[in-house]
Structure formats: structure tokens, C-alpha cells
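Quality-control log, excerpt.
Job 1 of 2 completed; input and output follow.
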Amino acid sequence: MLKKILFIAIVIVFIPFSTTFADSSSKLEKLDEISDEALQMVKIKRYDESEKLLEYFSDQFLKMTSEEKLFSMDELRIITVAHNEALGAVQDEQVSYEKKLNAATKLRLVMDAVYSFHQPLWTEMEGQIMQTFSATKQAVKDRDSDQFHQHVNKLLIQYDVIYPSLKVDVKPEKIQKLDARINYIDQYRRLVFAESSSQKELEALQTDLESIFDEMTEDESDPSLWWVIISTGSIIILTLSYVGWRKYKGDKEKGKTGKEHNH
């Protein structure tokens, strides 16, 4: 009988909690999928379809956020900015294919960063970014100013694409550090190209980004899952303790009643 009571207690506690969590997760997944579809349409230059998908994304996003608190204030702002940029780029005929693609990719990556906890998509850009670093440093060695500026421009674009995702997944102090290095490299290009002391900023930026990529790919555990396990486990333990105490109290009362009848 006690086993049956314990099982019912677990079901009562766990099901509503897991249902709520799954419902929120499915809503995020839906937004994630819409952003992916919009990106795929941009890739094949079907901008009208992409625009419709981005408008649908906006409708769903507003509906979901009005119904429940799915996002933090920072996430709301980051997603809104990325979405507006993607929609604006797709709608503007003067914007190049590359810029449309980058804007749609930015939204796709940030939505994935919010939805997933383990190895978000933006970490897959590590290879491209590190390759650009290598090419930039090679241009410095070769004393090729034109190539250097081209690769720095490319680096800035790549950083811009993952920037909203970084703001979701990385601590603000680390972002500030990256921003300071990026701004220095951009503003003082001639010094970075000409002086070894300034080139250290390029090396430092590469090291900092590598460290962030490593941190994101090394974390094998899903924090959301652990949170569910710990929270649910705590609730179940408390519930079972209460059920056990009630049964003990009930048995004690029965014993008392039985003794009184015997007398």
C-alpha cells in the first residue's frame, strides 16, 4: 500500500511540472524552426517567403511572450533587435545577398542559443573565425596591407553575426572584454598592422574567443535538465517525507484507538 501511495505522490508532483517545462520547450522549438526556415529561404534567394516567415515569427513571438514569461528582459531585447534587422534586410532590395544572409543567420543563431543549452549552433563558426585570424596574421607577416584590411573586415562581420548569441550565452564582463579588443583592432588598424605591441591585441582576441568556444563545447551536461532533476527531486523528497509522516501519524492514531477499545 505504501509503495502505491509513494508512486501516486511522484506522479502527482512530477507530471504537472514536466508538462509545463515541455510546453515551454515546444514553444521555443517552434520559434527556432521558423527562424531556420526563414534562413533557408534567404539562402536560395526566396526573399518574399523569408519575409512572410519572419512576420509569422514576430506574430508567434509576441503571442508567446504575452501568454507567459519565456524570456528574460535581455533575451527579449536581443531577439527583437536581431529579428528587426533580419526583416529589414530581407525587405530592402538595396541590401546585398551577403548582408541578408548574415542578418538571417544572426537571428537563427541567437534563437538557437536561447533554445539550446549544449553546444549551440554559433560554436560551429569557430573554424571559420579561427581561419580568418590565421589569414589576418599571415597578412601582417607578408606585409600585405590590402589583405590585412580585407581579413579584419571579414573578422568584424563574423564577430557581428555571433554577437547576439554571445550576449545570450556568455557573461557580460567577458563580452565587454571582447568588445574592447574588437574596437581597438578596428580603430587602430594601422598600429596593429605595423607594430608588434599592438598585434598582441589580435592574439589576445583570438585567445579569448578560443577560450569561449572551448567552454561552450566542453560542457557536456545540459543545465536545464539538471535543474529539472534537482528541483523535481527536492519536491518529491519533501512530498514523500510528508506522506510517510502522515502514514506514521495515522498508524499511531489507529494504535491508540485500538488500545482504548480494548480497555
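Job 2 of 2 completed; input and output follow.
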Amino acid sequence: MISKLEKNELPTVEESCCANESTRKSHHSDKVKNNLVVRLNRIEGQIRGIKGLIERDTYCDDVITQISATQSALNSVAKILLEGHLKGCVVDRLQEGDLEVLDEVLITVQKLMKK
């Protein structure tokens, strides 16, 4: 049997991690969720700042430096989400005997590594 990873397919919503039979949801603690929201709000501000730099014809190298910092911040959010996903959703599904989750994780890691 060829896995979704080998066929380079993405899992459907029903096949994605943190869901039950109807809709999968994450189960982050309020502390983690608040941390992610604070980080994303900061990133949103960085994006608006980059837009302003471009509108003000700021030197390209300075804009690129800000873009790089924003990408690093997004990568940090992704790492936090991936860790929670592995320790929560993936473990739960493996304990339920759902080995398909491994293909899903590999596809997700491939997406993150493209960056």
C-alpha cells in the first residue's frame, strides 16, 4: 500500500490530527494558546511594520532583515504547535492504533523543512 506521503498527498480535514469523528480540534492549554496568540499578534505587528518600510522606500537590506526576523518568529510558533501536536494529538492517535497519523506528521515536517 502506498502511503499519502509517498503519493505526496495532503490529509483531508477528517484525516488531520486533532479531531474526533466529526471535526478534529487541538487541545492546547489556555497558557499555550495565550502564548501563541501573543506571538502571532507580535508577528502581525511585524508584518504591518514591513509594509510600512516598503511604503517609505526603506533600504532593501533593512526590509529583508525584518522579513527574516518575522520568518523566525513564525518558525517559533510552528515549533510550539508541532511539539504540542506530537505530544498530544499524535500520541493519542497512536494509542488508538491509528498509524496513518505518522504519514501526516511526515508530510507536515516536510512542509516545515521547505522553508
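Post-run check on job 2. Confidence is low (pLDDT under 50) at residues 1-6, 8-17.
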